[in-house]
Amino acid sequence: GQVAEGDTVTVMSAALQLRGLLWRPESAQPLPAVLFLHGGGCGDMAADAQRALGPRFASRGYVFLWLYRRGAGASRGEGECALQQISRVRAEQGANAAMRLHVQLMTTSELDDAMAGIAALRATAGVDPARIIVAGHSNGGQLAILAAERDRTIRAALNFSGAAALWSQS
After folding, report:
1. N or C: which end of the chain has fewer CB within 10 A?
2. What is the mean pLDDT of each run of 10 residues along the chain (170 residues)?
3. Are the CB atoms for 138 and 55 separated by under 8 Å?
4. What are the C-alpha distances in Å from 113 to residues 4, 23, 66, 89?
5. Predicted structure pTM score
6. Which residues contact 133 (CB under 8 A, 6 or more apart)?
């Protein structure tokens, strides 16, 4: 049965095997789904948020996927985390170079991972592919907007303080 922490799933993003946590309510009907994109951290971030959000959305009839993007959390070892790359460039080349890399990653590899999460939800049994929502916090909120712009079939984008500290620069 469903565990409070969600079921671990694998999401393919090109050759990378990203990990995610999936909550899936019991239903005979196709359900709407939410892809949740975490912020820019690289560690096992937001365990409290996972435990609160996944079961809450599932109890209201949504399939909920918390996706760890490349190099982050449970996807550690699958590519390099964006924050590590950005921090390295900031130390070596300065803030402007770090911001350029941030924008580049958000519109390439990070966005590729988000799009892979959407594709994985569409392929999940019991998900209504016409009712997928992309949500995220901080960098994930920024990615939610970018993903909805790329895939116009996304039903909604939820941005929780997306890029609030960087918006004017990025």
Report:
1. N
2. 72 97 94 94 71 90 96 94 95 96 96 98 96 94 95 94 62
3. no
4. 25, 19, 12, 21
5. 0.91
6. 32, 33, 34, 35, 62, 154, 155, 156, 157, 158
